[in-house]
Amino acid sequence: MNVRLQTWFPYHIQIALNGREWLRRRLEARGVDFLRQGNKFLHIEDYALAQRYLRQQLHRQWPHLLNSFLPIAFPTMGQTLGPHLSYYWTLWQSEWATDLIMDAPAELTATTASLLDMAA
User: Fold this and answer.
1) C-beta neighbour count of 24 within 10 angstroms
2) Domain assignments of the chain as residue spans, ordered by start
3) In this structure, are residues 21 and 1 in contact, taking their beta carbons and an 8 Å threshold?
4) Are the C-beta atoms of residues 73 and 5 closer than 8 Å to each other?
5) Parallel, antiparallel, or unpaired for β 13-16 and 34-37?
6) Element (H, E) at 3
7) Going by DSSP bridges, is the β-strand pair 40-44/34-37 parallel, antiparallel, or unpaired?
8) How far is CA 30 from the centre of its chain?
9) Looking at residue 69, what DSSP letter applies?
10) Which of 6, 69, 72, 81 has CB 3.0 to 4.6 Å from 85, enough for a Cys bridge?
């Protein structure tokens, strides 16, 4: 995750969150074994748990979480904006990824053929 504060009024804050990194940290905290290469998972010991963690991202109380970063990203916000102004969070950019994990090469071949047929 990174937080970027615009240094001119209205002091926009941009936040980039890597959902897979978030998942990695959750799995490690839970002691779930996984194999990761770069930003992709090649194996996860408990796929059902990983899916539950990913779905939790959709129901996270994002304004509360993001507001907790304000004192770090903009420590002088109170003095700069005064006591009556705050931030209204909007989504500037989002990415949704679908990862497909196959148990056998034959599954990959069938899925690839199906995806290529849809693209044609």
Assistant:
1) 19
2) 2-95
3) yes
4) yes
5) unpaired
6) strand 2-5
7) antiparallel
8) 18
9) T
10) 81
Q: Which two tokens stand for residue 25?
A: 């940290």
**How far apart are alpha carbons 6 and 29 in whole angstroms?**
33
Identify the CA nearest to 89 among candidates 4, 15, 30, 21: 15
Facing residues of 15 across strands?
3
Instruction: Supply the pTM of this predicted model.
Output: 0.66
pLDDT, tens only, 58-112:
888 888 888 888 888 888 888 888 888 877 777 777 777 777 777 788 888 888 8
State the DSSP string of 98-109: -----SSHHHHH
Show the tokens assigned to 80.
Answer: 């700069």
User: E strand or H helix at 13, and its extent?
Assistant: strand 13-16
